[in-house]
């Protein structure tokens, strides 16, 4: 695996990342000072790193270790969008490219969007740069991701159309609801189905609004997952005084997250039922 760099050195254009399963024996560390530069030279790069497991924290920090040189800052260009981040502090989600391309094809010219889990701007930038969204509220609580997100908004010349809500979205997101904004869609980019945490459902008051909900689901459980989404959102709406017809219009199979587990995105629409 390699990440593009912005350091201007031809040999240093990439960080080559050794897989987490490589050189696991502690014996390699004892000769690392001599070994790692040799491996880097053989791979025609001046920056070498060792991939680590994603930290089991709420902020899902990177544990990537730089073996040669000490600069983990990288640039990655995808679909005409520049993503910059420090690979030692935050991971990059490679597998969601097809979903980002799908969102890029939407026409969001007059839409206000909320992304509850923005990261470094994976979907925020897609909606702003490619789908031409009017405004996005970007919620993120990892300080390293927030730093990269703000930089990426500037680098892609779209910072004037994004409001970054830094901190726990359980605190920051309700403030958006209280502003009575005409929010067209909510992007729920989290890896588990936690319907009770959909803090912005109240903002989706106008017919035709959309919720894009991500989840990891066993390949035999897709129907149960979509049924659970519809039922749970309907119950939340009723508890908030609304009577909605909730429809899962489409399920996108984005990638395999693990054997027999699909990463899915459900496109959910709401329609007010007239009493």
From TrEMBL:
Gene3D superfamilies: Vaccinia Virus protein VP39. Pathway: tRNA modification; wybutosine-tRNA(Phe) biosynthesis. It is an enzyme of class 2 (transferase). Coiled coil: none annotated. One of its GO terms (biological process) is wybutosine biosynthetic process. Residues 8-272 form the SAM-dependent methyltransferase TRM5/TYW2-type domain. Signal peptide: none annotated. Keywords: Methyltransferase, S-adenosyl-L-methionine, Transferase, tRNA processing. It holds the Pfam family TRM5-TYW2_MTfase. One of its GO terms (cellular component) is cytoplasm. One of its GO terms (molecular function) is tRNA methyltransferase activity. Its EC number is 2.5.1.114. It catalyses: 4-demethylwyosine(37) in tRNA(Phe) + S-adenosyl-L-methionine = 4-demethyl-7-[(3S)-3-amino-3-carboxypropyl]wyosine(37) in tRNA(Phe) + S-methyl-5'-thioadenosine + H(+). This is tRNA(Phe) (4-demethylwyosine(37)-C(7)) aminocarboxypropyltransferase.
